[in-house]
TrEMBL record:
It comes from the Bacteria. This is Uncharacterized protein. Keywords: Membrane, Transmembrane, Transmembrane helix. The chain crosses the membrane at residues 30-48, 60-80.
């Protein structure tokens, strides 16, 4: 199961990055590629188990899942709006994902759950 979640995350991340990068060129399929990739990343993060039961890790996991949902919301902004709302949403999501990707392993290491 862990390999499936890792593969889902990796493929989704590549699609997310490619869709966001190509969106700037105006290619009509890029928002769809981005949204599918963001959904795959969100599903991988929601379904990845956490061995740590501390309240800090639970809070960080909620922030991580919120960031993943913001990634999917960014896809909706790309599809349905013509402004730059998607950039704000993507920036907030990326900051949440970056912060939690650093802090969760630190907290798990404190618990000895490397």
């Amino acid at each position: 199961m862990k390999q499936l979640i890792s593969a889902l995350f990796a493929v989704g991340a590549v699609m997310l990055l490619a869709g966001a990068t190509v969106y700037i060129t105006g290619w009509p399929l890029s928002p769809y590629i981005y949204t599918i990739g963001a959904t795959m990343v969100a599903l991988a993060q929601i379904n990845s188990p956490s061995k740590c039961r501390s309240s800090i890790v639970k809070r960080l996991r909620r922030q991580q899942i919120f960031g993943a949902l913001l990634l999917v919301l960014t896809g909706a902004f790309m599809l349905f709006t013509r402004g730059n709302e998607w950039i704000v949403s993507l920036t907030i999501a990326a900051l949440l994902e970056l912060y939690t990707s650093v802090r969760i392993p630190q907290e798990e290491a404190k618990e000895g759950l490397d």
